[in-house]
Amino acid sequence: MNQEEIERLLHREELRLASVSKRATAFFLDEFLLSLLLVISLWDAFSQVENTLQLVALSQQFTLEYIFLKIIYQTFFVFMYGATLGKMMMRIRIVELPNLHTPSFFSALNRAVVRIFSEMFFYLGFFWAVMDPLRRAWHDLSAKTLVIES
């Protein structure tokens, strides 16, 4: 679908795109929740940290586990509810084009994996949404999704 068709669809269904600030806030809420979950689950290791260098080393040691946790979290919540906990708190949700339904499992998984690549490349995929008229980040473009107001 091109931009004009998407805009007509949103207008017809009386839907509004989520603002970049709401999306950013949801992102930070999700990151906080996931980081807290990681620290709680690895409390034995984190409680023994004595200085900043040890904290950095410990964090690096669990980078792959954290990435895997993020993919599972994003995929599960987007597939099941159309929104992560952060997005739910901000009252925004994700819909798949062209039907505007909650994303399929494969669309949610695609979106979660491409988000990781966006983060790895200095968050460029997220900054893309600021310039895109439909506020789509790389993961939205890849999964053919939009983030809208609930």
Overview in brief:
With 150 residues, the chain is mainly alpha-helical.
List keywords for this structure.
mainly alpha, two-stranded antiparallel sheet, 9 helices, 150 residues, 67% helix
Would you kindly provide a written description of the structure presented here, covering whatever features stand out?
It is a single chain. The protein is built from 9 helices and 2 strands. Helix 5 packs antiparallel against helix 7. It is elongated, with a radius of gyration of 17 Å. The two termini are 22 Å apart. With 150 residues, the chain is mainly alpha-helical. It has one domain. Helix content is 67%, strand content 7%. A two-stranded antiparallel ribbon has the order 1-2. The protein has helices at 3-12, 20-41, 43-46, 52-61, 63-81, 85-89, 105-120, 124-131, 138-143, and strands spanning 92-96, 145-149.
Would you spell out the secondary-structure blueprint of this structure?
Blueprint: H1 3-12, H2 20-41, H3 43-46, H4 52-61, H5 63-81, H6 85-89, E1 92-96, H7 105-120, H8 124-131, H9 138-143, E2 145-149
Antiparallel strand pairs: 1-2
Helix pairs in contact: 5-7
Q: First CA to last CA: what distance?
A: 22 Å
Number of domains: 1
Report the count of strand segments: 2
Overall form:
elongated
**Biggest sheet descriptor:** 2 strands, antiparallel
Strand content: 5-15%
Rg from C-alpha positions? 17 Å
What is the spatial order of strands in the main beta sheet? Answer: 1-2
Low-confidence stretches: none
Query: What structural class is derived from the secondary structure elements?
Result: mainly alpha
Helix count, per DSSP?
9
